Each structure stands twice: as structure tokens, then as C-alpha cells.
Amino acid sequence: MSTDAFARFTQTDSLSNSIPTSQSMKNCITLIDDNEAVLKALTLVLKALGYSVSAFVDPLEAVFKVQTTHTLDVNNLFALITDVRMYPISGTEITKLIRKNLPHLPIILISGDAEAQDIEQFIVKDAFTQFLQKPFTPQELQKKLSSFSNTDSSQLKLTRAS
Length: 162
Fold this sequence. Notes:
Layout: H1 3-10, E1 28-32, H2 36-48, E2 52-56, H3 59-68, E3 77-83, H4 91-101, E4 107-111, H5 116-120, E5 129-133, H6 138-147
Parallel strand pairs: 1-2, 1-3, 3-4, 4-5
Helix pairs in contact: 3-4
């Protein structure tokens, strides 16, 4: 990410009026990106937007934590944001795994490596999956997250894998 893109990304001054409240929505976001600089920048932006963040540079660790850790309170989990191109598991593969236990968890896939059209053809078109092309602004991220705020919380219940 270039210095200009980083500066543009971390500008949050105009977002103070759109900070979600704990009364209006769940506020925990699991964030996965194997680029530490992007992970740190996104964490800062999400915190400025009023979310708590569980950030992971290791995608396998993130999947393990989301699927198996009982300390992760599903009632407070609002969304998962993951990079698409990672090793040894991609964001689209993570989405498929997470959907087995949390079929209605809002997920935003992000990527700077491909054209949006290339990625979007692989994303299941549903109300719970979105895509953002890097670089994006905090306002664009907030807009995607806001689109999930009307999600029925009863749909986010953890289901047991058979």
C-alpha cells in the first residue's frame, strides 16, 4: 500500500457521525489479512468506527479461533473481513469454512490483487457476502458494514457441524 493510499485510508475525520452504538448493533469484527501493514491500518479504522477488532495475520489461526473458541461470543460477532489472496488458505476458502457453522455471518472479502470483476464471479451472491477492492476509503468500508446492520440477529446463531 503506498503512502498516499495509506493516508487516504486512515482518514476518519468525516466518520464521527456514523459510529455505531452498542445498543444498535453487534460490534465485534474478526479481521484477517496476511499483510501486517494493512491489518494495522484496518484495525485503526474499524476501532475509529466504533468496532472492537480481533485481528489475525495468520488465516488458519483465525479460522480455528472463529470455529472452535468458546470465548468468542457469537452474540457480539458482527462481521468477518478477510483478504482474498492469502497462503495457505484464501479468503474464499475461509468463507466456505465459516459458512458451515455461521451461514448468515456477514463477510466482506477484500483484495488489491485482482480486478473486482474477477473476484466477484467467485463470490456467492447473497445478503451476507460483500466485496471491496483495495484501496478503499473508510467511508466505503462503513457503507458495506452498514448494509449488514439490518441483519436479523436470530440468523447469526452458531450451528453445529454434523
